[in-house]
Amino acid sequence: MAFTLYALIQTAILFTNAIAVLHEERFLSKIGWGAEQGIGGFGDEPGIKAQLLNLIRSVRTVMRVPLIAVNSVCIVLLLLFG
């Protein structure tokens, strides 16, 4: 497989899909990354863990509908051009 722009885009899409399917109660809470672990005090700087949890929640919220369209386009392109 050659290192092309399409392969790089497909890698980004697969990585975003992996983040989007992480379930908070089933997976993240078992490793200590549930919803209650990311809460900090008022005025405290959020740590790396809280920022990553916020990123995961944001990707799951914002990218759900666009990922369906992007995945559909990728599937059609793979079917047409191999």
From TrEMBL:
Instruction: Extract the InterPro entries matched here.
Output: Yos1
Instruction: Tell me, in one coarse class, where this protein mainly resides.
Output: membrane
Per the record, the domain of life is Eukaryota
Q: Which GO terms describe its cellular component?
A: COPII-coated ER to Golgi transport vesicle; endoplasmic reticulum membrane; Golgi membrane
Asked whether the keyword Membrane is assigned, the reply is yes
Q: Which UniProt keywords apply?
A: Membrane, Protein transport, Signal, Transmembrane, Transmembrane helix, Transport
Q: What is one process in the GO biological process aspect for this record? A: endoplasmic reticulum to Golgi vesicle-mediated transport
Q: Where is the signal peptide?
A: 1-20
- Localization per Swiss-Prot or TrEMBL: Membrane
Q: What Pfam families does its record include?
A: Yos1
Family from the record: Belongs to the YOS1 family.
Function, as annotated, reads:
Regulator of endoplasmic reticulum secretion that acts as a key determinant of brain size. Required for secretion of extracellular matrix proteins. Required for correct brain development by depositing sufficient extracellular matrix proteins for tissue integrity and the proliferation of neural progenitors. Acts as a regulator of the unfolded protein response (UPR).
Tell me the protein's name: Immediate early response 3-interacting protein 1
Organism (species) = Onychostoma macrolepis
Its ancestry begins with: Eukaryota, Metazoa, Chordata, Craniata, Vertebrata
